[in-house]
Every structure is written in structure tokens, then in C-alpha cells.
Amino acid sequence: MKNKNLKTGSRRPSQPKTLSFKVKKQEELMVFLIEQLPHKNRNNIKTMLKKRQIVVDGKAVTQYNYLLKPGQKVELATAPAPEAKQMRGISIVYEDKDLIIVNKKAGLLSMATAKEKRETVYSILSSYVKDKNKNNKIFIVHRLDRETSGLMMFAKSEEMQGLLQESWEKTIFERSYLAVIEGQLPEPQGKISSYLFESSAFIVYSRQDPEKGQLAITHYKTVKSNENYSMLKVNLETGRKNQIRVHMQDLGHPIIGDKKYGSTANPIGRLGLHARVLAFNHPITGKKIRFETSIPGSFLKLF
Fold first, then answer.
1. Measured between alpha carbons, how far is residue 120 from residues 83, 127, 145, 155, 233 in Å?
2. How far apart, in Å, are the Cα atoms of 189 and each of 222, 230, 250?
3. Residue 1 exposure: Cα atoms within 13 Å on the Cβ side
4. In a 3-state reduction of DSSP, which class is residue 32?
5. Which has the closest alpha carbon to 164: 155, 173, 156?
6. Which of 43, 106, 111, 257 would be 122's cystine partner, CB 3.0–4.6 Å?
7. Cα dihedral angle (41, 45, 50, 56), rounded to 10 degrees?
8. Given pLDDT bands bounded at 50, 70 and 90, which one contains residue 14?
9. Cα 53 from Cα 19, distance rounded (Å)
10. Residues 73, 96: one domain?
11. Exposure pattern of 166-203 as b/e (b: 16+ CB <10 Å)?
């Protein structure tokens, strides 16, 4: 009798209720949700997206500018998804059978090193996939510095990891960052190229000698500026370790909070670097996928 009651009883309180809406026209998810939820403001909705409470055709979506199509079903859970409560420091932006894209906070290491064994993006995601199936694994595709926030891509198989890393320059068609630097650049936009090499002390140096290191090319454009700081949109033509940080030092305007590469200002208590856009051709489906995060609030407060 006891087991029968468990099977036929009412829904457990821990399972969140959902509201469901049908999409009638093509529009961005934020616009759609504001129309459907007039009692919620943009910040409320962004919080719900971050907590994976918005589900489109059965998949949680965290991007406010996700483009909806007619006929899709949007569901709204009245409580955060269980995994959203567990994964401190990261939020899943996109997931399918091959890939996971996450937005990480500053201060979290991408993966463990010989000297650093604390919780990392890799360890958090590894636990997440193993909770679904103990045989599941996660594979890192690229890294972000500990103090850099923003978008990262992980593969769900070793084959997918290899495929992505081998075709990285062809697969990725947009990868842009926001960098807050000290002062103002003499020219609002430009390009810098040099050859980077890393010393035994793990400091990356920039030279104009091709015999000294790997070619690194960075494009930048000023988007906001005042007498103390400038916010740049930075696009990478190459993806070398510490590339943006070293190139900003080369320009004489280091990234705020970057003591390692010459900064003396730290107004936000972290490195002023955020991986904002990641766009790529899906290696299996061939579909173009683009993700863009919002500008960190701490960056905006400076302007």
C-alpha cells in the first residue's frame, strides 16, 4: 500500500510548476517574455534565464537574445532548475549531445593545474554530466584565464574535442571580448600583431622577431571611454595565451586589474576582461550558432 501511494500521490513540492506559451512570430526571447510576463522587468527575466527556468522546445535557454521561431513552445518554470542551484560560478548557455557552452564568472579556474586543485569549470561540468550517467565525460576545448569571465566551449567526447581543436580557426567565425583598459588610446581602433613567447616564470612576452615566438594578431575598437578608462571590443585573429593582456600592455594601456602585465589600477577588484561573443559552425550539423552575453555590470559602472 505504501508503494502504491507513492506512485499515485500528488506531485512532489520539489518539482517546479511550469507556464507554457506558443510562439506565433519570429522575435528575440527577451521581447517575447516581456510581452508574456508584463509583471516581470528585464532584470527579473535575466535572472530566470540565468537560473535555467526558461525552456524552449524542451531545452533550457539562458541567452536573452535567442531568436524564437513560429511554432516553438516556451515553458517557464516557477523555480530554478536543480542544476542551476548546484553549479556555482558557471551557467550553461547551450547544450546538445556533442557540446556544452558555459558562461563562467571571474575567479574560477578553467581546469586544475599541478599547483591548483580547487574547484574548476571542468570539475563542475564533469560532476554535472556524471549525475546524468556515470560514464559521461567532459573535454576542454579552450581555456579562459582565471580572472577572465565569459563564454567557454566544452566537448562531450574525445572525438569532438579533437575535431574542434583541429578545425578551430575554420569553425570559429566570431570570438570577441570586452576589455577595460587604463586611459584612452590615441586612435579609437586598430590592429596589433607580434610574436609571443612564454618564459619559465609563466610570463608571456611580445616581440617583433618571428624567431622568438608564435604570431598573435588582435583587432580592437573603443566602445566607451572617459578620462580614466576605456572599454574596447577586441576580436582575436589568433588565440595565444594571454594575447589580449600582452597586446594591451604593448599599447601602453594595460587592462585594469592586470598587475602581471603592468596595470596599477584595480577599480572593480578583478581583471577587466570578458569573453562576450562566441560564434561557430557546429562541426556535426553545420549550423551557424552565435552566443552573446551581456556586459558585466562592474564594467558599466565605470562609465
1. 16, 11, 12, 16, 27
2. 6, 12, 15
3. 0
4. helix
5. 155
6. 111
7. -170
8. very low
9. 10
10. no
11. eeeeebbeebbbbbbbbbebeeeeeebebbbbeeeeee
Q: Give me the CATH number covering residue 204.
A: 3.30.2350.10
Residue 114: pLDDT over 90: no
Per the CB < 8 A criterion, the answer to whether 160 and 168 are in contact is no
> Smallest Cα–Cα separation from 105: which of 303, 298, 302?
298
Distance CA 166, CA 169 (A): 8
284 shares a domain with 261: yes
Q: Assign 243 to helix, strand or coil.
A: helix
Place of cell 594591451: 248
Q: How many domains does the chain divide into?
A: 3
Which range of residues forms the domain containing residue 184? 170-303
Q: Find the helix or strand (DSSP H, E) in which 276 lies.
A: strand 273-281
Q: What is the pLDDT of residues 23-77, one digit of tens each?
A: 999 999 999 999 988 888 888 888 888 878 888 888 888 888 889 999 999 988 7
> Side chain identity at 225, as an amino acid letter?
S
How many C-beta atoms surround the C-beta of residue 204 within 10 A? 19
